[in-house]
Amino acid sequence: MVNIRRNKYLKKVIRFLSILLGLELIAISVSMFFDPHKIAAGGATGIAILVKELWNTPLSMTLLVFNIFMWILTMIFLDKIAAAKITFGSIVLPIFLAITPNYMIIKNPLLSDIIGSIIFGFGLSILYRLGSSAGGTTVPPMILNKYFRIRKANSLFVIDGIVCLGNIFVSGFEHFFLAILSVGISTIVLNYIQTGIDKKLVVYVMSEQHLDTIKNKLELELQASSTVFDVRGGHSNDQKEMLMLVTDTQNYGTVLDNIFEIDTEAFVLADSVAEVHNGRF
């Protein structure tokens, strides 16, 4: 029992440190690779860079104010669960931006843009894998998806495009193209590490004795419905049940944690799907 508690505590510590690592990687990419060359590569951090160039406002201050506004919108138009997921990152990322040195490591803008984009993509993928978020411009796509069924990837692409266009008026066309390149590289890195920003995962679960408990816990934690299939064992020929759940990619880590917390021997199979229409997931 002591070892089980110790392992759970260790997992929580590792998860917490991993989220901090993801947020710090994003802060490093902005402070040391994007901002020194005035590259506003989409998102809330890109908006902060544009505001800094126009009015010399600190990146951390602009990002904090913007994230607080997004958090308020989340509470109004979404729910407390969504607000809880973005709260930590919305506060910690501006703090990391404030304490991370704003220093030009690479003088070549193109090389700095490429390396910064890779680091940014790695940081974002860590947050998605752990079911966390840095808040920012991820909130409007969630609202648009809920009320108008607009795909989150599409609306996020439009928002990033608008931020990138801001480079033209603030720094010129060269920075605009660097910003577009950055968004593309970061997306490729994220897609490679995860399965895609807007793709969903279909998760199949089999448990000898705890399937109902797993189903109820997943529905309670994620507020997502599921489907139970009657299946037959290929070797034993015994009748069994299999749970199917569709979830966002960034929730996959949470799904696994909830399943293995109940049954460490549960059989889990996951596959990516391009689109899901209707239903609760």
UniProtKB/TrEMBL annotation:
Domain DUF2179: 226-277
Location of this chain's protein in the cell: Cell membrane
Taxonomic superkingdom: Bacteria
Entry membrane topology: Multi-pass membrane protein
Entry keywords, A to Z: Cell membrane, Membrane, Transmembrane, Transmembrane helix
InterPro entries xref list: DUF2179, N-reg_PII/ATP_PRibTrfase_C, UPF0750_membrane, YitT
One Pfam assignment: YitT_membrane
Family annotation (Gene3D superfamilies): 3.30.70.120
Keyword Aminoacyl-tRNA synthetase in annotation: no
UniProt keyword Magnesium present: no
Spans through the membrane: 12-34, 54-74, 86-104, 110-131, 152-170, 176-193
The protein's name in its UniProt record: YitT family protein
Organism: Bombilactobacillus thymidiniphilus
Highest classification ranks of the organism: Bacteria, Bacillati, Bacillota, Bacilli, Lactobacillales
